[in-house]
Amino acid sequence: MRLTEELEKEYGTLFDTCRVRDENRREVDETVKKILRNRHRYEGVGAQTGVPWYVIAVIHSLECGLKFDRHLHNGDPLSKKTRNVPQGRPPGDPPFTWEFSARDALTYDDLTRWTHWGLAGTLYRLEAYNGWGYRRNDYGVLSPYLWSYSNHYTRGKFVRDRVFDPEARSKQCGAAVLLKALEEIGAVEFAETPPKRPAEKGRPAYPGKILKQGEKDSESVRMLQLRLNELGCGPIDPDGDFGSITAAAVRLFQARSVGNDGSPLKMDGEVGPLTWEALFGRRTLTRFVPSASGDPLLVKAIEVARSQIGVLEDPPGSNRGAQVEEYQRSVGIPPGEPWCAAFVYWCFRRAAEQLGIANPVLRTGGVLDHWNRAYEEGIRRVTREQAMEDPSLALPGFIFIIDTGAPGGAGHTGLVEKVDGGMLVTIEGNTNEGGGREGIGVFRRSKRKILDINKGFIDYRRA
Fold first, then answer.
1. Do both 49 and 135 map to the same domain?
2. Of 123, 194, 394, 402, which has the fewest beta carbons less than 10 angstroms from its beta carbon?
3. How many C-beta atoms lie closer than 10 Å to residue 255's C-beta?
4. Distances 405 to 158, 365, 429, 438, 455 between C-alpha atoms, Å
C-alpha cells in the first residue's frame, strides 16, 4: 500500500481529532512516563539508525511492553534468537543486548531507509509494521495498533494470523495515541527529514561496531579506505571490501598514531571507537557520550561516590581507616580486607537510602563473585565484547568489573562516572594514582579504556 495524498490527509485528520478514552488515561500517562525515563536508550538506537526515538519507543511498547529483555521484532526473549515471525533474528549468537537486536529489527523492516518522518509518514510506517489487514478487509475497524484506547477505536481485532474477532478488544495503547500524548507534553515534534547523526562536518559518525576483516558494511569500509588513503596509509582500492590490504593499512595507521588520551593505539588491524576517533576526529563519537539521567539511583550513586573522593586508608596500604572500615562493614568483611567492591556497594546503599528505595546491588565484597552472581540472578550485564562493539552500551552509573588474574581469582571494580567513546572516567575505591588494585584510597581515574575492562559492566537500572 502506498502513502497517497488521500491517506496522508486521513492520518492528519484522525490524529488531530484523536482523544484518549477517560478509562485509559491513567495507563497512557504511566506508559508515557516510562518511555521518557528510558528516552536515552531510544535516542541511542535512533542516532545509529536514523529512526526517530519516539518511533522506536512506541514500537517497543506495543511489541515488548517496554521490557528491555525482549526482541523489538516481536517480543521474544533476548536469551535466544526470535522464534516467532520473523524467525531466527538477529544474526549472531545469543544472548543479545536490546540495542543490538533493536537495530536489527529496524533494519529488517526497512525503517532505516525511510525518510518521510512527518506525521503521516510516521503513522504509515507504524501501521505497516503491524500489517495492512484492517485496511485490506472490510471490517470497518481502524487498526488498534495505531488507535486503541482512543475515540477512534472500540472493538474488533485479529486474535491470530488471518483470524478476526469483531468482539475482541485490544488491551494495549495504540502507537498514534502514545504519540499524541507525547506531542501534547512537548516531547515530540514531527519533522519531515530524519534526525541527523552527530559527526564532524564532512566526517562520518562511528558506525557503532568494530570494523575488521570480513565486515559486510561496505559503505563504512569504503569511507575508512578513503580516509586511510588521505592519510598516506594506502594506496587501497576503495571498494568497500575489508580484506588483508585494508587491515595492513589500519595497522600502519595505528603504528603511527595515538588515541585521544595520548596513549598508543593497539595495532590489531581492527577499527574500534578509539581508532575511528583518531582517524576521523573526536566529534564523530559524540553520540556515544551517554547520560545516566534516566535512572535516579545511578545518578545518586555517582553523587555519593564523588563525595568520597579523597578518602584514604589509615595508615596507607593497610586496608583500614574509619571510613574504609565503614565500607567494609556494609558488606560484612573484616578490616584489612581489599575493599573496592565494598566501596561500590556502600555508594549504592547510601544512594538508595537517600531516595527511600531498596538497594538492588548484590551484597558482596568479592569482585568476581559479584559478576558471577549477577549472571545467576538475571541482573543485566554488558560484556567487554559488547561494549567494544557499541560504546553506547556502557553508561554512567554502571559498575565495571576487571579480572586481575591474581591468585585466588581476585579482581577490581568501580563506578563509571562518564563515557567518552572508548574512554571511561571512573570513581574507584582501594586504588591509587596509577589506577591499580590494592591502592590506598578513593580516586577519580580518567585513563581507563573499555577494552581494559576485561569482564564487563553490571547494569542496575530499574527499568
1. yes
2. 194
3. 11
4. 56, 17, 19, 14, 11
- For residue 293, is pLDDT > 50? no
CATH code for the domain in which residue 260 is found: 1.10.101
Reduced to 3 states (helix: H, G, I; strand: E, B; else coil), residue 211 is strand
Which pLDDT belongs to residue 285? 59
Q: Which residues of 429-462 are buried (b: 16+ CB within 10 A; e: fewer)?
A: bbbbeebebbbbbbbbbeebbbbebebbbbbbbe
- As a whole number, mean pLDDT of residues 68-87 equals 94
Q: Which CA distances in Å does 270 have to 245, 248, 266, 276?
A: 12, 10, 9, 10
Decide if 255 contacts 274 (C-beta within 8 A): no
Measured CA distances, 200 to 147, 220, 279, 282, 379 (Å): 40, 15, 12, 8, 37
What would the pLDDT profile of 381-420 be if each residue is shown by its tens digit? 999 888 877 777 888 999 999 998 765 557 999 999 988 7
Residues 55/62, Cβ–Cβ less than 8 Å: no
Indicate if 399 and 431 belong to the same structural domain. Answer: yes
Residues in the chain: 463
Q: What CA–CA distances, in Å, run from 201 to 196, 204, 220, 280, 284?
A: 12, 8, 16, 10, 9
Total structural domains in the chain?
3
Q: Supply the Cα-derived Rg of the chain in whole angstroms.
A: 25
Q: Which pLDDT value is given to residue 421?
A: 64
| 103/100 Cα distance (integer angstroms) | 5
Cell triple for residue 123?
503513522
Q: Which three cell numbers stand for residue 444?
A: 577519580
Locus of grid cell 535516579 = 296
Instruction: Specify whether the CB–CB gap between 76 and 86 falls below 8 A.
Output: no
Position 62 pLDDT exceeds 50: yes
User: Per-residue pLDDT averaged across 11-22, rounded?
Assistant: 94
CA distance 80 to 15: 37
Distance separating alpha carbons of residues 433 and 442, to the nearest angstrom:
10
Q: Write down the pTM of the prediction.
A: 0.48
User: For residue 86, what are the CA distances in angstroms to 83, 182, 216?
Assistant: 7, 29, 21
Each residue's pLDDT tens digit, 412-453: 999 999 887 678 889 999 998 654 445 789 998 887 888 889
Judge if 305 and 400 occupy the same domain.
yes
Q: What are 246-281's pLDDT values in tens digits?
A: 999 999 988 887 776 566 788 999 998 888 888 887
Single out the residue in 287, 306, 334 at which a domain terminates: 287
